Amino acid sequence: MKISFQLIRNLIKTSFLGYFLVNNSFCLCIVGFVQRILLTFNLSEITPQLIGLSAVSIVFGRLFCGFICPFGIIFEWTYKLKMKINNSKILPKVDPKIHNKLIYLKYILLIIGLYLTFKYTTYVICGVCPIGSFAGLNGTVISFILLGLFIILGYFIPMFFCRYFCPIGALLGLLSVKPVFKIKSNDKCNTCRLCELKCPMQINILDNMDEKECIRCFQCVTACKKGGIKYGK
């Protein structure tokens, strides 16, 4: 029996989700996850994880997002659930004028996150959270509230958090501006744009492909039955 590439990818991502849950006592703290990765980018402590993550992004693009990130698979399940319920094969689109501005929000959050990380070199965001101080909630509770909010938003707008809010995606995106391996069309492409209709990140794949926004989910490659979209050098 032939096993599809997407099935293999889902198995890999689900395995990393399971590892993440077990390793973190089944806590899905999205803020803590972001802070943990940002801490590895503290320049006073160059780590193998930092070197590996940077190298993979420079060569392959945001492969971390497409194959490893535990929250990425959750948000992917969310938008696919809506498609299943609505029996839809076409993803909803955000007005391009709004979308093209919102994608830069995560870069602003990255700057803020890195500033706090380099200044305090600790899990500072939860500690200084004004919402927690006002509502009497600790950082973990707030993180679960935020995760629930992003899951709801991701039900209506595919990969909402990954598109607009994830500072880790922004950081890896900066390393993936011109990766060695790229998503690109070839002479088999008939410009039907089915690849773009299947892209959860709303990327114009055939017109000025934005590599830094691509999460390497390869939905576009899978969607093209003619082999018109390939991933390679």
Automatic annotation (TrEMBL):
<keyword id="KW-0411">Iron-sulfur</keyword>
<keyword id="KW-1133">Transmembrane helix</keyword>
<keyword id="KW-0408">Iron</keyword>
<dbReference type="InterPro" id="IPR051684">
    <property type="entry name" value="Electron_Trans/Redox"/>
</dbReference>
<feature type="transmembrane region" description="Helical">
    <location>
        <begin position="107"/>
        <end position="133"/>
    </location>
</feature>
<feature type="domain" description="4Fe-4S ferredoxin-type">
    <location>
        <begin position="205"/>
        <end position="233"/>
    </location>
</feature>
<dbReference type="Pfam" id="PF12801">
    <property type="entry name" value="Fer4_5"/>
</dbReference>
<protein>
    <submittedName>
        <fullName>Polyferredoxin</fullName>
    </submittedName>
</protein>
<keyword id="KW-0004">4Fe-4S</keyword>
<dbReference type="GO" id="GO:0005886">
    <property type="term" value="C:plasma membrane"/>
</dbReference>
<dbReference type="GO" id="GO:0016491">
    <property type="term" value="F:oxidoreductase activity"/>
</dbReference>
<keyword id="KW-0812">Transmembrane</keyword>
<feature type="transmembrane region" description="Helical">
    <location>
        <begin position="16"/>
        <end position="38"/>
    </location>
</feature>
<dbReference type="GO" id="GO:0046872">
    <property type="term" value="F:metal ion binding"/>
</dbReference>
<dbReference type="InterPro" id="IPR017900">
    <property type="entry name" value="4Fe4S_Fe_S_CS"/>
</dbReference>
<keyword id="KW-0249">Electron transport</keyword>
<keyword id="KW-0479">Metal-binding</keyword>
<dbReference type="InterPro" id="IPR017896">
    <property type="entry name" value="4Fe4S_Fe-S-bd"/>
</dbReference>
<keyword id="KW-0472">Membrane</keyword>
<keyword id="KW-0813">Transport</keyword>
<feature type="transmembrane region" description="Helical">
    <location>
        <begin position="139"/>
        <end position="157"/>
    </location>
</feature>
<feature type="transmembrane region" description="Helical">
    <location>
        <begin position="50"/>
        <end position="75"/>
    </location>
</feature>
<dbReference type="GO" id="GO:0051539">
    <property type="term" value="F:4 iron, 4 sulfur cluster binding"/>
</dbReference>
